[in-house]
Amino acid sequence: MTTAASQPAARAETSREGDTLVVRLGGDWQLTAAWPVWSKLVAEPSPARVRLQGDGLGAWDSSLALFIREARAWCEANGAALKLVDLPAGADRLAQELAKKPVKPPLQPHGLPDLFAFVGKATFKTWSEIKDIAWLVGECAFSVMRFFRGRAQFRWSDCLVEMQECGAMVLPIVGLISFLVGIIMAYQGAVQLRQFGADVYVADLVGLSVVREMGPMMAAIVLAGRTGAAFAATLATMKANEEIDALETLGVTPIDFLVMPRLAALFVMMPLLAVYSNFLGILGGMVISWSILDIPTSLYWAETKTIIDLSDLSTGLIKAATFGLIIGLSGCLRGLKSDRSAAGVGQAATSAVVTGILLIIVSDAVYAVIFNALGW
Q: At what angle do helices 215-223 and 310-336 cross, to 10 degrees?
């Protein structure tokens, strides 16, 4: 078995003949390999004439033309005469063509954006987002009307599959997070309440916080990151593959067939997940109270029952159902409005999570004001 000999590397050897700088080029000049740099070959004092000789030159490509262009530019800048000896004519012609191409100036950093332009763009973007949300809410309202009239293209099998995906499949992660949140809240509350001898009120703190706020909130945030992103990615992929266009061509309404089963599944499962999250959050607080505060579990449970009433439980369930609709709307909206590309699928999933969590926080704040006004 024979091996090919390695190609000789590009080289440039310099010598002085009076006021003439002689540069002898040799080897193979390839763009994929290193070649000499002209600025490193020129030494003081600057020569009056430069002679490039290519008697030892092998194979060459545009790297040789770039070298000649650099030498020519240096000679013009320093008033030296350039002479080419035994160099390929094609390399010189290519170097002259490259010299005609202007060098791009370095990019200047942009200044601060104009305040009025920034505010105007943000306003138009916000208004466009509001119109998109209003469009989807209106389409879903018409779909509900068609459903009760028996004309909606709604499949219960799809709804049941989505209920399993956003219900039973998320129980482990929701349970773990809710349990840990209950432990954290009980531990932090115990550190403060122990100073006043009010250890038993840890049950009140954990019970009310979990049932009214943290239980529905934790379940909603988990589903926004898991289910909302999945909805957006699924619908965005269908849009990129023109499956949604095919449904419309066949006379199938995408809102009835794709959006409503997902909204119904989240609307039904979110309150159940909130109850599950409430139970595990209270259980986490009970573990801390029993292990650190030496509070019997029976006393902890009795204190929890005295502080939580039906209004607290209904408050959390109402929030949970609303959060489910928000997650479904955010995911489906981003999926339906995504770009028809692979990058659009990722952007839709990311935007669905951000939009869902933002609207969950806003709606929770609105509910806090409403429930406070109603005395709940």
A: 10
| Local structure of 20: helix, strand or coil | strand
Is 125 inside any structural domain? no
Residue finishing a domain among 76, 100, 124: 100
Residue with tokens 């909603």: 220
- φ/ψ of 373, rounded to 5, equals -70, -35
Distance between CA atoms of 62 and 51, rounded to whole angstroms? 20
Mean pLDDT of 199-208: 86
* CB-CB contact of 212 with 333 (8 Å): no
β-partners of residue 25 are 12
pLDDT(22) > 80:
yes
In-domain check, residue 351: yes
pLDDT of residue 5: 46
CA–CA distance, 319 with 188 (Å, rounded to integer): 25
What is the token pair recorded at 354?
Answer: 């951000």
Query: Pairing mode, if any, of strands 49-60 and 11-17?
Result: unpaired
Task: Dig out the tokens for 225 from the structure.
Answer: 């990151």
Q: pTM score, two decimals?
A: 0.66
Decide: helix, strand or coil at residue 87.
coil
Same domain, 174 and 262: yes
Total domains, the chain = 2
Q: Considering only CA atoms, which of 242, 236, 235 is closest in space to residue 262? A: 235
Looking only at the bridges linking them, the beta strands covering 20-29 and 81-85 are: unpaired
pLDDT digits (tens, 9 = 90+) for 310-362: 888 899 999 999 999 999 999 999 998 888 888 888 899 999 999 999 999 99
Is residue 40 situated within a structural domain? yes
Which tokens sit at 364?
Answer: 């929770």
Which residues on neighbouring strands pair with residue 81, listed in sequence order?
49
Euclidean distance between CA atoms 224 and 361, whole angstroms: 12
The chain-wide mean pLDDT, for the chain, equals 85
Residue numbers of the domain that contains 60: 11-100
Domain-ending residue, one of 100, 120, 144: 100
- The stretches of 194-259 forming alpha helices (DSSP H) are 202-209, 215-223, 229-240, 243-249, 254
- The C-alpha atoms of residue 277 and residue 271 are separated, in whole angstroms, by 10
Within a domain: 194: yes
H-type alpha helices, the chain? 38-41, 62-78, 89-100, 115-148, 156-166, 171-193, 202-209, 215-223, 229-240, 243-249, 254, 260-291, 297-307, 310-336, 342-374
